[in-house]
Prior knowledge:
The protein has about 270 residues and is an alpha/beta fold. The protein has two domains: about 15-195 and about 235-260, 3-Layer(aba) Sandwich (Rossmann fold); about 195-230.
Amino acid sequence: MAVDISVPLQGKIALITGSTSGMGLETARVLARNGASIALHGLGDPADIATILDEIGDLGVAARHFGHDLSAHEQGANLVPEVIAAMGRVDILINNAGIQYVADIQDFPDAEWHRLIAVNLTAAFTAIRAAWPGMRDRRWGRIINTASTLAMIAEPRKAAYVSAKHGVLGLTREIALEGAELGITCNAICPGWVLTPLVRRQVEAKAAALGLSFDDTVREHFVRDLPTKRFVETEEIAAAMLFLCSEAARSITGVALPVDGASIVV
């Protein structure tokens, strides 16, 4: 599915964390097609990342990669300053990086709790704090946090993820208030099930545990109760991100926008 809306972002610089795959990568492509220069962030094979940078560069915009490990506080805190040093500023900040760990609460390791909170919540806070002065001085900024439908509900065996995503939603609302008179908006996208590499690993793990095929596991355990009976597509997430970057969305701030096929209303 192609994103067929157009938003003029020429001259803007967008940092998208977790953008070497999945929703972040598709968002990087869509913003680049609309004129934004891209600070790509994330882990991955160097050859694959080089290919992505070439693809974005072929769209006529600047693109650079930053490989900071957001689970390490110092690296997370240095990401935005290093992007600004290399590219001049950050006009659009999309805090999209996320990780998952699934376990019953009595078995949940301390290390995994701290790792998930660091990547899924603390990294968003430190990135916003570092990007804020420039956005404030320019009286323009777009901050979008990738939350989840699990920012509004819960699911068993995901204590750290659910806690972090609830925190992301609270952070979003706080930053929206602080930016309301400064031309800075802050919103959260709340995807439902999107077949990203993160979700694919969850499907594969459940399929292995149940002795089912991948497709049967998807049908019986992931999309069975969704009104749309399908995963959300990464292009649909990217389209929502693009709209929230636009001038048309300048009065939309502090919202949690579900892109989930109505999963939270059933």
